[in-house]
Amino acid sequence: MVAGFSIFILLLFITQYIAYQKYLIHENEQRKETLIQVNVIKEKLQALVMYSYSATKSLQYIVERNGIPPDFEKIATELLNRNKYFDVVELVDGDGFITHVYPLKNNDVLGLNILTSSESSSGALATLKRKDFFIAGPVNLKQGGIGMISRQPIFIENKFSGFTAVVTKLSTFFNDLSIDSTNDNGFIYQLSRVNRETGKEDYFFKRDISAFKEFAVPIEMLYGEWKLYVIPTKHEFNTGIRFALVGFLIAIVGGWLVWFFAGQSVRLNKLINLKLIKQESELELIHKSSRKQIKKSESNLNRAQQIAKLGNWELDLTLEKGNLTWSKEMYRIFEKDPEKFEVTNDTFYEAIHPDDRARVLDIFTNGVKNNKGYRITYRLKLDNNGIKYVEEQCEFIYNENQNPKKAFGTIQDVTDRKKIEEVLKNSELLYRNLASNAPVAIFNLNKDGECTYVNEEWMSYSGLTFNEAMGSGWQVALHPDDKERILGELLEAILKNIEFKSELRFQDKKGKITYLAVKITKLLDANNRVYGHIGIASDITERFDIEQELLIYKNNLEKLVDIRTEELNESKEALLNLLEDINSQSIELEKEKVKAQSADLMKSAFLATMSHELRTPMNSIIGFTSILLKEFAGPLNEEQAKQIGMVKTSGQHLLGLINDVLDISKIEAGELKVSLYPFNYIDSLQKTVEFLLPQALKKGLSIESEISIIDITLISDERRIEQVLLNLLSNAIKFSNIGAIRIKVAVKDHFVVTQIIDQGIGINKTDLNKLFMPFIQLEGGLSRSHEGTGLGLAISKNLIDKLGGRIEVESIEGKGSTFTFYLPIE
């Protein structure tokens, strides 16, 4: 009886203890399920903040450096595809009006002023006040639903110019978690934003949760304090109660069985032990699952920080020396070993460059004192004496007594950006110095014809200052009699996307008139689209004065001839006097002719000198842009590579023009030298063909050779002959759109005869006599469809003449041309 009663008491105690543990396990499982749900939403919300900051920061960077991107929809599409939380991307101008929205469908907000809107003004003004990233919400969206709006202010030259923004619907956010926030049968969800000044909560969902304040989970972030509510609605029956009743019955039955069967106690104890082991295993499984989920979230955050080169730190300000903690990316940025480096305030400041250390410490101290976040760029001095540029942002958290509690900050490695900015700055200074010191007027127009740059020479011609010439102000310099004609020609050139070439007059404020020859060439980007124009104007006042003088002489001579002719009928004496006067005038004309020839030689000498002076810096510009494009100085983004590529292309085009001008100047000045030595003519020809073959293939043309002799040795100037071949073959490719370009080579009467035959546009017979004249192009003015200086054929003819040969041309308009040149073998 005693044994049975003892067993009953023992079994009752054990079963009730197990029931109590099972009751606790059941309650813990429900709490863990709720906690897991809270942690998942909390992590996703923090990820949304990071992604919103990254997206708006990227768009802000583009707008601040390049203005509103013409491919805004493409950039917005990439942001939406890369970030599943975003529903809309927006741009806002400096007056608060929404100017760009993507996608437009169901987003009728274009033209809305967010600074005056009752729904948007508080968040927009808060962002403007912070001068930094800010998330506003809850907001009743125009397209329907409740959402959050993340904004980044835009400052161009320290002037507020608008916002970049992304919009996230709360429904999109919860759908990503596979949660129906309105119809979830397991939980009630609520999200609120706490106003730090009033302590009031702004709720995202219209539901009363005043009875569930204990379920609030605070979420302290850099951009405000938030609260998340996940309230379970189902209260499952706790199996521990059932187990307690069963345990009571087991105790009764066990005590009775022991009373009858004392030997059954061993098996009962074994059963109890197995049950305890199973319960312990279930608890361990739940613990491992929670740890795995937390570790995965930490890994995603570290990967995102590594991609953005963005680390974060947190400093506990309640301690005397402060407890500083770093994220993993901070160690990579500072190039420190996490196993060996001890993170403290002292070691942190020791890593800052000595010249920047006092400034950073002063800004941090003032921030703590005034509860004012900051953003600052400074340098790090690494252990290997290397230098890094970083951008730090910091916010402070204060307790209810307004005492500093925590400092939270981010540090981003911006070394590459700094290097690129420095290279671009030096390139721009080089261009400005070259343009400013050029002996001709240089100016830039945008694609709408508005002036964006003039050099010193232009300002001396016009009498205008730099600021007066900007925009449409340059038109003031035009002579009133020329203004309407020139603006009409320029507008037509811009609309038809062709080159502008004309002669005009500038009249300054004092009435001084300068005659100018002006040429304006379009500037193309990497996609062959016009983004502006560059113009060069040279002073031709002296030439104009000479022409006017000659015209006066001509008119005077004609009048004199008329008078003398009348007098001839009256007397022989008059005829003799007339002949004497004509002879005197002829002498004067001969003097003027000599004067004009002298001016022409001075022009050629000037062009030769100027071309030499321009070619040296142009080679430097092309060389440095090639180095930048090869990314020896650091990686380039797509926009930077495109713009540097355009600088290189324009430089190569200008260098080719300078070389042609230099050659024709030497020819006209009689200073062109040739070097004669033996070389294989066929090898030179094949080398030139191989160089131009990609250009021909790009237009769908083929180059065919018909050479009767494989080995031809010439005693001549190989470089100049290759220049002639390059000019003639380039013209054949330029003016051909179909068919083949044939090259025939033969030896006849001690001359090498080369024929270049194309099936291009051909030349009118009346124009053949102008073909080899310098600066003459058969397509002129606004009707030109092919680029060029008009110097290639003139240079080629002079070179062939200099080498003892001759050149001929046969052409049928619309069917093609044949250029034949003869070179002596010796």
UniProtKB/TrEMBL annotation:
The keyword Nucleotide-binding applies. InterPro entries: CHASE_dom, HATPase_C_sf, HATPase_dom, His_kinase_dom, HisK_dim/P_dom, HisK_dim/P_sf, PAC, PAS. Residues 609-826 form the Histidine kinase domain. Its main location: membrane. CDD domains: HATPase_EvgS-ArcB-TorS-like (cd16922), HisKA (cd00082), PAS (cd00130). Residues 554-599 form a coiled coil. NCBIfam families: sensory_box (TIGR00229). It holds the Pfam family PAS_3. The keyword Transmembrane applies. PROSITE patterns: CHASE (PS50839), HIS_KIN (PS50109), PAC (PS50113), PAS (PS50112). GO terms for molecular function: ATP binding; phosphorelay sensor kinase activity. It catalyses: ATP + protein L-histidine = ADP + protein N-phospho-L-histidine. Residues 427-497 form the PAS domain. One of its GO terms (cellular component) is membrane. It is found in: Membrane. This is histidine kinase.
